[in-house]
Structures
1.
Amino acid sequence: MPWGLIYLGVAFLVFGLLARLTPCNPGQRRFLSRDLADNVLFWFLGALIYGDLAGGYLRAGAALATPHDAGAVVTALFAGYGWAARLPLLVQAVLILVVMDFIQYWLHRLFHVGALWPFHAVHHSAEDLDWTATYRIHPVNFAIYSAGAVALTRLIGFQAAAFAIIGLFNLVIGALVHANLDWTFGPFRYVIASPVYHRWHHARDPKAHNKNFAPTFPVWDLMFGTYHMPKGERPQSYGVEGVPTSFVASLAYPFLELGRRMGLGRTRGEATA
């Protein structure tokens, strides 16, 4: 927790100062956004309750699949096994990034339709989109999209040390792509996700609906026809109609919305990106 708080403090200063120098949306608040307090509460929620959820999935799966050898299976899963574990750690780390990004690309698309959308709409509800929106994640969204992707990738056999290597990269890239920065990465725009690329994903603009799903590597959007970053244009407004922005209301919203759907057959707060 202390290191997490130190990171938050450093990120607050760094991204706030960068947003003053090169903002994508100059009219947006640089430091004290409208959504800051709620986003911080979401961060604390994650720090307090999520823990090693992916590891919990693996332990539970091993107990169900091999009840007599669950301990040995879990040990192998966490230590690494097979061809993947024999690769150099840096190669493993790169492969983990690619595999997880591919899994999350498709999970992300699933969260933009049907019963999963209300849970993901909480993330899209931020109206002052900045780096703190990274943590505006409903627990159900986190359990499937984040922890689920890690658990699936671990089944391949990569070593725990390789996952640790990419930890800092994922921490930084997640905040960076949500930051209010006018960065496209120029010729590398197709190689790695930029702030402008991901801000289009959050935009209210109908042209950007259901675009730019890849967390890190836009190649998936290029391959599957969901890439959108028009040259010289910038998204101007964010948020989702009908979805609350406050912390407590956001936690309850998906369940209330699904209840309304079952009771009245009516959909509210449809996907905007």
2.
Amino acid sequence: MSLYQQAEYGAFEELYSRHSSRVYGYFKNRLSSPGEAEDFLQHTFLKLHQARASYNGMLPFLPWLFSIARNLLIDHLRKHRPTVIEADKLIALAEKASLSGSPEPVVSWDEVMKLLPDDQRQMIQQRFEEGLSFEDIARLSGVSEVSARKRLSRTVQGLRKFFRSKGARQ
């Protein structure tokens, strides 16, 4: 990134080739279509270009890049806010799954993730899908590293308890 800041535009190609697949995956898991994910990927790297002078080389690059991506997604979601589904609807889905007797799950992981509160879902995705460290998650969430660890642990424990109560294998 420091080379790109110094107007070595070949460095942009290297940044794009190294990180575009992870950024695309981030959007693909959160948006309704691959085309929309591709648009957001391009917009993220456009924002990177526009903000290249403000990047602090003392900080890790990847969390900075994902903060750009995350902010774009948050702005989009604010404009197109989805309907909030309460916990009782999640329980109803799980009961439907247990009553169906089908070996195929009625409730998918994606459905469960969409029902989590935004902060919990983001932490799960940042840790397990994006592979971010607790330090990076804490920085992006605006909390201490200890708090990020505790919140993520509680979320994982809650998901385990929920799935255990529904007889799901872990």
